[in-house]
Amino acid sequence: MGVPFGCFANEADFPPWTSKCVGGNMHKTAQEWGNLVRQAFPGYSGTRPRVQLWHGTNDTLVPFQLMQEETKQWTDVFGLSQTPTSTDQPQPSWTRQRFAGADGAVRLEAISVSGAGHQLPMGGMAAAAVQFFGL
Q1: What is the band of 10 on the pLDDT scale with cuts at 50, 70, 90?
Q2: Which of 12, 31, 46, 62 has its CA 20 to 30 A from that of 92?
Q3: Contact 24, 63 (CB under 8 A)
Q4: What is the rounded distance in angstroms from the CA atom of residue 125 to the CA atom of residue 41?
Q5: Could you tell me which residues are beta bridge partners of residue 106?
Q6: Which secondary structure element, helix H or strand E, spans residue 106, and what is its range?
Q7: Which pTM value belongs to this model?
């Protein structure tokens, strides 16, 4: 239910009803999206925390296509393939894609919820997040 970092150009682009970001007009390459993250703190060279994305397929406020843009961004930031290392359905309406590094550690999870709109979270999501982040 989010957007890639840097999608909103500035405060003026934020209102969803007039935004280029959520209006479906923001397409960048993985490297272009990744560069926005890297440029936010150019000197940073440490490890980054894992990222978990959730998005409803019927979200009318933030288009579902932006989940793909977010996935492109974070696979680039982590230096991962855009092809998931695994895909499963932890619940009947969920499709989870996992992206792991060469060491097998999952750095990114992208979970789409079939039929859901912009009303996440739903049952079971908190437990899935707690498990993913090892809390």
Answers
A1: confident
A2: 62
A3: yes
A4: 31
A5: 100
A6: strand 106-113
A7: 0.92
